[in-house]
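Researcher: Quick test of sequence recovery. Tokens follow.
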């Protein structure tokens, strides 16, 4: 018509109807359970039928729990079951739909590592240690800048644009940071400070295949044996069932003859030793200073959450004392392991109670006296059984460690 009236077109014939689109019908089901689930109210099948009838949506089937409707052509928006629920909600009244205030609060349970970290803090603070929080970036030119008890071949990471030009490197150990903190405390008049820190060090491999972040526990104190005792007390507090071994080692940052590699259950655990005068001077530390750095993952694995109970034995324990003269290089750890292996399960405990050096012993020698505790939980041990175990220990220490039994 517009073409004919405006553009000068001529209508030759009237409109021809070539055909009509056949309407496509769809059927949808909705149940009372659907209404309850999404609206929080229950609507009966009769009420649904009345609502859809008012909306000109034919109800083709009615069953006990809901209805089936045929979607009319003028409602192309009704394509899913949830669309029918929405129509019922609008007619039923949104004000009639309950809106309960729900707040679900899920408290994340601490992981094993987090629990152990807390236990370590409590234990060390109870022993008089203070926690240190040191900088991740350190200077690259100190005696300890290249030291690591866990990965000596790791590359050193440096920042391209460090905030402080004097500290461009990511730390490879924590003991250097604790030495710096110790020196700062001493300059403030705090001489008797014991520090610890649990943090990451960075020991990536040479090919850069890993980030190299390793969590370690480091401690600093005045005395080697005091620090070693603190580590043993910490493991005892964690109910560790593995044996701690200290084997002599040498490193440029530790005084000769005053360092040991620590193993826990045969696994590398860390290192402990007294710092050299040069290392202490670089960090401004005066007096003696003992350092330890431990693999924190090994500490986590050593924790026994539930204590194990052992029935008290009804049979007596027999005690025997032995004393040997040995080379100064022989460690107590070697003697203990040798004695336990030779005597078997009847040896319940072994304790060192005396160490002596002097002219009477000879140069390069030392005398160690220790007590052995034997017990069998099934019977009372006879003198012959105890003596056979004792002879086995004497033979093992003599043959394997070169010890000479003292009378």
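Model:
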């Amino acid at each position: 018509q517009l073409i004919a009236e405006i553009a000068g077109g001529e209508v030759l014939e009237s409109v021809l109807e070539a055909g009509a689109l056949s309407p496509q019908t769809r059927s949808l089901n909705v149940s009372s359970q659907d209404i309850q689930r999404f609206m929080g109210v229950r609507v009966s099948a009769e009420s649904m039928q009345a609502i859809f009838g008012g909306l000109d949506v034919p109800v083709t089937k009615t069953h006990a729990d809901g209805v089936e409707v045929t979607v009319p052509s003028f409602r192309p928006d009704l394509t899913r079951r949830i669309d029918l629920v929405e129509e019922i909600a609008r007619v039923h009244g949104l004000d009639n739909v309950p809106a309960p205030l729900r707040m679900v609060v899920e408290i994340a349970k601490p992981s094993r590592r987090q629990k152990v970290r807390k236990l370590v803090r409590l234990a060390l603070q109870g022993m008089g240690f203070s926690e240190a929080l040191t900088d991740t970036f350190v200077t690259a030119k100190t005696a300890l800048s290249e030291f690591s008890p866990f990965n000596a071949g790791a590359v050193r990471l440096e920042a391209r644009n460090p905030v402080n030009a004097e500290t461009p490197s990511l730390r490879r150990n924590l003991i250097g940071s604790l030495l710096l903190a110790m020196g700062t405390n001493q300059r403030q008049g705090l001489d008797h400070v014991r520090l610890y820190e649990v943090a990451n060090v960075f020991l990536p491999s040479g090919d850069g295949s890993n980030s190299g972040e390793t969590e370690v526990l480091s401690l600093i104190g005045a005395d080697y044996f005091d620090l070693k005792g603190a580590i043993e007390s910490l493991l005892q507090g964690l109910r560790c069932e593995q044996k701690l071994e200290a084997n002599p080692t040498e490193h440029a940052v530790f005084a000769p003859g005053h360092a040991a590699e620590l193993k826990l259950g045969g696994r590398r655990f860390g290192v402990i030793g007294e710092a050299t005068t040069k290392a202490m001077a670089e960090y401004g530390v005066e007096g003696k200073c003992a350092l330890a750095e431990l693999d924190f993952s090994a500490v986590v694995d050593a924790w026994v959450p539930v204590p194990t109970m052992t029935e008290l034995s009804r049979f007596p324990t027999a005690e025997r004392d032995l004393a040997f003269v040995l080379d100064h290089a022989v460690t107590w750890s070697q003697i203990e392991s040798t004695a336990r292996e030779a005597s078997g399960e009847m040896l319940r405990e072994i304790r060192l109670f005396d160490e002596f050096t002097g002219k009477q012993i000879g140069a390069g020698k030392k005398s160690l006296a220790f007590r052995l505790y034997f017990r069998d939980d099934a019977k009372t041990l006879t003198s012959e059984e105890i003596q056979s175990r004792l002879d086995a220990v004497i033979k093992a220490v003599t043959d394997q460690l070169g010890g000479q039994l003292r009378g």
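The CA atoms of residues 204 and 210 lie 6 Å apart.
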